[in-house]
Amino acid sequence: MSTAVKVAVVTGAGQGIGRAIAERLAKDGFQVGCLDFNNETAQQTVKLIESQGGSAIAVAVDVSDREQVIAAVDSVVARYGRLDVMVNNAGLGPTTPLEEITPEIYHKVFDVNVGGVYWGIQAALKHFSARKPARRGDIIGKIINASSQAGQVGNPDLAVYGATKFAVRGITQTAARDLASRGITVNAYCPGIVRTPMMEGIARKVADENGQTLEWGLEQWAKNVALGRISEPEDVAACVSYLAGSDSDYMTGQALIIDGGMVFN
């Protein structure tokens, strides 16, 4: 990739995994566009990055809205002059027992988790297409999508979420084939049980149903992890750092599992 100052966009950068990714990429030398539905938390991420000597901009966006995503990425490029990496991280993960799935839940989760990936890819391609690889095999842009351990195997009570994450793997593979000749790689990362507000909400529901604490709820999930602990957001950010950097230039169409040893391929 170019030696010029690099620019990355991260959706869902206001908390959890997205915030950790934005912070890590800033440490890696990227200027970062922090996109989130919640502008206040996105601004907090920017302040964290700036306090560590990095440069970032916050943009409020609903990733289920195609025009908003394209406009948000445009605003980052207007600020920094280019785009090198697009991280389609934003997502929803409600528990959905099969009998309780409604059209509203189905559409909402798919619009964010799957639609947000499509629109993020389109927004990135608008700017990647302005550059051409100097020679066959040169990489001019990277797209990185959030799948999940739940996009590798079916998990109880996550029929909607899991379906979206399986879909992201399919999109990633197809886009990798479609875009390789244009010097663009497309990969995904598959976190397992990560200590995020979303995961804590799931664990708290399990804990409440059993009259236990949040930590007890999280520990129930950790029992399924070979390494014996749930992930921290920084663990996942390290994986994304690799996918965003030049060391992964010869990798495309892959979904890297970063789950502490839950799924083995």
UniProtKB/TrEMBL annotation:
Q: Span of the secretion signal? A: none
Q: Which UniProt keywords apply?
A: NAD, Oxidoreductase
Record carries keyword NAD: yes
Please give the catalytic activity noted in the UniProt record: (S)-acetoin + NAD(+) = diacetyl + NADH + H(+)
Report the enzyme's class at the first EC level: oxidoreductase
| Source organism superkingdom | Bacteria
Q: In its UniProt record, which GO terms are filed under biological process?
A: acetoin catabolic process; fatty acid elongation
Give the family this protein belongs to, as stated in its UniProt record: Belongs to the short-chain dehydrogenases/reductases (SDR) family.
NCBIfam families of this UniProt entry? 23BDH, PRK07231.1, PRK08643.1
Q: What is this protein called?
A: diacetyl reductase [(S)-acetoin forming]
